[in-house]
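Example record used in the benchmark description.
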Amino acid sequence: MPNTDNNDTSQPRPSDESLNQVQDDAESDSDSDSEAKPPGLGLMYGLSAGHGIKHFGQGALLVMIPSIRATLGLGDVAIGGMSSAQSISSGIANIPAGILTDMFRKKIAWILLVSMLLVGTGYIIIGASPVYWTLLIGVSIVGFGTSLWHAPAFGTLAARYPKRRGFAMAAHLTGAQIGNTTSPLIIGFLLAGTIGSWVVFNGIDWRWLAVIISIPMFLTGLAVIAKFKTAGAESKGDVSLREYFGSAKKLLSNRGVLGMALLGALRGAIHNSFQVFLVIYMREELDYSDTFVGLHVALITMAGIISTPIMGNLSDRIGRRPVISFAMSSMTILIFLFLQFDSGLAMTALIAVLGLFFFSVMPIINAAAMDMIDKGSEGSGTALMFSGGAVIGSLTPIAAGFINQENGFHGVIIFAGIIAAVGAALSLILPMKIKA
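Model output (structure tokens):
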């Protein structure tokens, strides 16, 4: 017995460190060994690049909508139905995405590969679609594939960089915004075949363009599986189905996370209802060319390339609520200003300023949710966040289609502005973790 005190002060220390090593690595990114292991920051930047290419595909579909509408003779409600089909399939995809991510954390790269393969396949079907219903199938597969990316990518980043979640998620979304910015510029030019009077050719039909878009999707999937097999290496290992559902049940009772899911859903509803009919308005009411429409769509995300990492880093320093509330309030004011500035240079400038907040706030909302999620449930938490957006997002485009049909684009502006105002109010009262 006397030797016990001596052992407590000398021998057990290495053993204690060994027992606590996994917990220390999981709970703090100040552990230099955890941060120094490959791929380190390379994983964050690599996933951001892949996210950018995925969003290049999503942005392409938006600019192609007027051409698809003209070819197939689609009405406003049918156009809204395309966005709804994409949102519904995205919501469904979140369920397996969250389960697979949390159960098979060391197989993240394979889930990302499947995501990109589905996006590419969906675009091939879109290009070959003879009728509207076939088109919906292709759009739905694209939606499923794009959503399958979120849980493994965001969940892995949240687990790998717990002290810098805001910045890591903002960097990931910055990649998406680069894709969203370059896509409409390139796709608009390829559809129109012109840049003013400097470059003129016959343009590429939207069907062939859809097939061409599938190529970088397939190549990105292969690059991910080749370069980032270590994604998820920070996890202790796979979990059982019983353990997963135990964590998921606890997650669904977390009011803070559910509140962030609702807030993220409202932001997505603004996007789905406003942006689609802004494109239709510019093309059909203002008679903008495909190239000019693409330029304006690019402006929505261009400013966000700069503002997103700044907002993410700021939220890590001063807390999530001030950044989220400011962004949602600014978005509300800017959307209502479209009632006054609905054409010309004033509208162009307004679109650019809106781009500072339109997408940039989403990674901050995600980070706020991850702050309240238990370690090991990041994938399911991300899935829940995007599922909420898909549920509300599946309804708002159809509603916006009816509003646009009866009241024009100004009606859609009011509809989106009201949603933004509700989101701004909720951002002031929903529970969030207080910055330590």
